[in-house]
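Thread: Newbie trying to understand structure tokens

Hi all, I'm a second-year student working on a class project, and my supervisor (Dr. K.) asked me to get a predicted structure for one chain before our next meeting. I've only ever worked with sequences, so writing a 3D structure as a token string is new to me. If someone could post the tokens and maybe explain what I'm looking at, I'd be very grateful. Here's the chain:
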Amino acid sequence: MPHPHRLILASASPRRRELLGGLGHPFDIVVADVVEHEDPATDPRVMVAHNAALKADWVAARHPDAVVLGADTTVFLDGEAINKPRDLAEARLILRRLSGREHTVFTGLAVRRLSTGLKIDEGVASQVRFKPFGDEVIEDYIRLVNTLDKAGAYSIQDQTDMIIAGYRGSFSNIMGLPMEATKQILTRDVLQG
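---
Reply by user tm_fold:
Sure, no problem. This is what the structure looks like when written as tokens:
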């Protein structure tokens, strides 16, 4: 089946690239040159929606005929957003804070096609429960998983048994791109002709 629309992922995330690749629709990657809003005090739903739209709008302005998908993900606990750690010391602090507790993962999705005026914004939330663990597990986890490029300093799909007790909602959302919502938007509204 021919694909009538060019699809662009406005993200450098290898996890988003891998997840979107599972749809079987060819796409290009264009990384938006924007400064994301990352104030931990901002409502996480507002923050991820803003950042996803910022990325999608920047790329769409340069590729007005393409369908552009932007996304942004954060972890939310105790009334504040927990973004990517600045360094390993901060990653350790974040993992200590998440230990034995449940948090929410929010992802904002933004789909744009300027030539047709297409503008879709959606948000997805999932809950993740961590096992209780101490510094030894944290050190092992940091050795095995790159914690610096992930909101909340963890990856649900890597070394899951070490730290994750369970989750509710979309697994792919926790990875960084809620595929159920993404597929629904793209197949329903965008890539059909």
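A couple of things are worth pointing out once you decode it. The chain has one domain: 7-190. Residues 44-62 form the longest helix (19 residues). Feel free to ask follow-ups in this thread.
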